[in-house]
Write a structure and sequence with these properties.
7 helices; about 30% helix; eight-stranded mixed β-sheet; elongated; alpha+beta; Ribosomal Protein L24e, Chain: T; Alpha-Beta Plaits; about 30% strand; two-stranded antiparallel sheet
């Protein structure tokens, strides 16, 4: 579908929108530097571009954050499930967290404007590692055949949003809760390929490198405090 057909590059339209971010990207960049960050983002964009289903289109990218739109919810659900699955397959990579919303946006020269964008961003920002959340507005457009893929998680009040937003979680296709995550740089690790491991407070932690292992041993509490 051509979103801009006959509109001279601008139009107002009701769309489904997805915003997805890499969890722990800042921590990973701090630990491993810009070259690793570039490698991760380049691979992430390769995954995102290859995962687009049906009418889904990548509209914007800022660092590790992508904004995608589609003219129906089913295409976005298929897309985000594929992105999630493909990122989880990568060793020494980062998981995503994402938010989906439905509403009216103004599109001009492939830039998006309006409160729909802000709400989608806020939903994404409260999602945890591997979690994909959506608004009731998005869920109401999901066909009945796909609604069992979601579970309600209650309402949430967002800053500068007038009304509370009822939220739903897209249930994971794979058991991401069993994922091993390097507590220092937040990359997920295949234990069989971990370069270092240790037991701390009766929990086993795996590391992508000796550098992460050394940082953890120097101050374990620093990296475990508030970890998602």
């Amino acid at each position: 579908m051509d979103y801009f057909s006959g509109q001279q590059g601008s139009m107002e339209k009701e769309i489904s929108i997805l915003m997805a971010d890499l969890t722990g990207y800042t921590a990973m960049t701090d630990v491993h530097g810009g070259a690793s960050a570039a490698r991760i983002v380049n691979k992430y964009m390769e995954i995102v571009n290859g995962a687009c289903s049906g009418t889904t289109k990548v509209m914007q990218r800022v660092g590790d954050q992508v904004v995608m739109i589609a003219d129906n919810t089913v295409d976005l659900i298929a897309t985000v499930n594929q992105i999630n699955a493909l990122t989880l397959e990568q060793n020494h990579f980062l998981s995503i967290h994402a938010g989906m919303h439905f509403g009216s946006v103004f599109i001009e020269n492939e830039n998006l404007f309006g409160s729909t964008i802000n709400v989608a961003s806020r939903i994404m920002n409260i999602a945890c590692r591997g979690q994909i959340l959506c608004s009731a507005s998005f869920f109401s457009k999901v066909p009945a055949t796909h609604q069992p893929q979601f579970r309600p998680i209650g309402s949430h009040r967002f800053k500068n949003v007038l009304d509370e937003v009822d939220l739903f979680e897209l249930l994971p296709l794979s058991n991401a809760s069993l994922l091993h995550v390097d507590p220092v740089c937040h990359m997920h690790i295949d234990p069989a390929k971990a370069l270092s491991s240790c037991v701390y407070n009766r929990s086993t932690y795996h590391f992508c490198s000796e550098h992460c292992s050394q940082l953890f041993h120097s101050s374990p509490g620093k990296f475990l405090l508030g970890q998602q």
